[in-house]
Each structure stands twice: as structure tokens, then as C-alpha cells.
UniProtKB/TrEMBL annotation:
Record organism: Hafnia alvei FB1
Every HTH lysR-type domain range: 1-60
The family this protein is said to belong to: Belongs to the LysR transcriptional regulatory family.
GO molecular function: DNA-binding transcription factor activity; transcription cis-regulatory region binding
UniProt entry tagged with the keyword GTP-binding: no
Name of the molecule in the record: LysR family transcriptional regulator
Keywords: DNA-binding, Transcription, Transcription regulation
InterPro entries found in the cross-reference section: LysR_HTH_N, LysR_subst-bd, WH-like_DNA-bd_sf, WH_DNA-bd_sf
Residues that span the membrane, as ranges: none
Pfam families linked: HTH_1, LysR_substrate
Keyword Cell division: no
Length: 289
């Protein structure tokens, strides 16, 4: 590649983040490193990509045209890396899969059965994680592939693809909780009652929670807290059906709920999954809606 991948990634991430400093944080680099990489790219191309006269860099008309091609180059490079892994057919001896509680238990059972038949000699480790914790495990090479509730933005070193199968989420509480006696609940009324909220380990380090909130790093712990009557919680419907006995939790009637959420399969572009991990990714993407 004539232009360095680092410069192309810095350019795309700056456009996405809106500033050099925000892009540097996402890339885990210094602001000067990102600024220099983009300046070098501008020199190589002979064009000005950003108007720097304002507080934040603004993409020029030339930059807008370059952005389209840069995204195509990065996507093609990633596809080439994935093809190379498949062609080598060097099956990884160990595979770590980060599973979100939003994934339907029956779908996981079917996946594991087929994986066992295809890769019986591959050591398989399954972790439970949500949101930022999944991203962190992939970036630290602690995991090879994961599932995560869909988000708008991902770090540039994370590959992502959207599953066609969505997850149903609803608001639950124990039948003994005062909210369970209400036929209809306005969303703002929930603010006066303790919420059992998902909060990953990384998010807890970065934010302070205030108000009537108890938190846990996964939905299964929140489910257990809700069953004990400590508050209300947004939970995956399939998880409640799988782990709760009849009437241990009841869904609350709140406008807009239950709702469907999208789920993404994610992996590290720097350490792409091998044949076994790629098979899991393809399996997940081929699942019917």
C-alpha cells in the first residue's frame, strides 16, 4: 500500500470523531501522532483534507472525495487479511468467544453443537461480557470474537458485522414489587424507583452513577437482583424465559416496551480470527432473522 494504513485510519477516525484529539483517544495515540499522520497523508496526496481554521477540523470538498476511496481501501485490506487466514487453513488451537446475554440461549446451543462437530480439537473458552468490556477483551487479544449490542461507533481496529437476528428486550420486576401492581406506567415514573442497570467494568471506572441505581456488569446478575425484588431492570426476554421460573419476574407495561435491539458480531482487525473463529462469524451472520 502506497499510503500507510495508520495514516488512512487516522484520517477516517478524525472524520468520525470530529477532532484530532477525539480520534487520538479512540486510536490510543497522542494527538500529535494523529495530526502528523494526516499532514503526511495530505503531502502524499497533494491535497488539503481538512480546513483547520475553525475550532474543529472541517472536511474539505477534496477530503470528502478522498474519504470515499480511503474507506474502500481499508475495507479491501481487511477482506484480504480474512482471505489470507482462510487460505492458510491454520486452525487455531484455542478460541475465546465473548458472549452477550442478549444472544438467545437456544441459538448458542445450536452453534456449540456444530462447532464441536467441525473443530473437535480446538480448545473453546466462552466468556460473558457486554458493551465496552467486549471491545476491551478484543483489543487486548484476550478474546478472538464476540457479540455486542449494536452501537453507532466502533474503534478503528474493531471489525463489525450486523446480525439479521434481533433480540427482544423488556422491563421486568418481581411480582411483589409495587410497580408490578400497576396496569400502565409512564417512563418518567420509573425515575422515582430503583433501577437495576447494566454497567461494564470499564464504564464504572469512567463514570459516576447518581440516584436510585444499582448496577452489575452482565444481565444475568441484574436478573437475579430483579427476582429478589430490588428494583426494575431492562432484560433480554430470552434470558428471562431461560432462567426464570414461572412468575419470578413480570414484564411492566411501559410505552415503547418491549423493543427489539440489533446485535453485532465483532473481532479485532489487528488479530483477525482464524478458520474456527471465521466459521463462528459466518454462522452467526447466516442465522435467519
Amino acid at each position: 500500500m502506497r499510503y500507510s494504513p495508520e495514516a488512512l485510519n487516522a484520517f477516517v477516525e478524525t472524520v468520525s470523531a470530529g477532532s484530532f484529539s477525539a480520534a487520538a483517544r479512540r486510536l490510543h495515540k497522542s494527538q500529535s501522532t494523529v495530526s502528523t499522520a494526516i499532514a503526511n497523508l495530505e503531502d502524499d496526496l497533494g491535497v488539503t483534507l481538512f480546513d483547520r481554521s475553525a475550532r474543529h477540523p472541517v472536511l474539505t470538498e477534496q477530503g470528502q472525495r478522498v474519504l470515499i476511496h480511503v474507506k474502500e481501501i481499508l475495507a479491501a485490506s481487511e477482506r484480504l487479511d480474512q482471505l489470507a487466514v482462510r487460505l492458510m487453513d491454520n486452525v487455531e488451537p484455542r478460541l475465546t468467544f465473548v458472549l452477550s446475554d442478549t444472544f438467545h440461549p437456544s441459538a448458542l446451543e445450536a452453534l456449540l453443537k456444530q462447532f464441536d462437530q467441525r473443530y473437535p480439537d480446538t480448545e473453546f473458552e466462552c466468556l460473558i461480557g457486554e458493551d465496552e468490556d467486549v471491545i476491551d477483551l478484543l483489543q487486548k487479544n484476550r478474546a478472538h470474537i464476540g457479540l455486542i449490542e449494536s452501537r453507532k461507533h466502533y474503534p478503528p481496529d474493531i471489525g463489525v458485522a450486523r446480525l439479521s437476528k434481533q433480540t427482544q428486550m423488556a422491563i421486568y420486576t418481581a411480582p411483589s414489587h409495587p410497580l408490578a401492581l400497576r396496569e400502565r406506567i409512564r417512563p418518567e415514573e420509573l425515575n422515582a424507583v430503583r433501577e437495576l442497570r447494566l454497567s461494564t467494568y470499564l464504564e464504572r471506572d469512567q463514570t459516576q452513577m447518581h440516584g436510585l441505581i444499582w448496577s452489575a456488569p452482565n444481565y444475568l446478575l441484574l436478573l437475579s437482583m430483579a427476582v429478589q425484588g430490588f428494583g426494575w431492570s431492562v432484560l433480554p426476554c430470552a434470558l428471562v424465559e431461560e432462567f426464570c421460573h414461572q412468575q419470578e419476574l413480570v414484564p411492566l407495561s411501559v410505552p415503547g416496551w418491549p423493543k427489539s435491539i440489533s446485535v453485532d458480531v465483532v473481532w479485532s482487525k489487528n488479530s483477525p480470527p482464524g478458520p474456527a473463529g471465521s466459521w463462528i462469524k459466518d454462522y452467526l451472520l447466516d442465522m435467519p432473522a
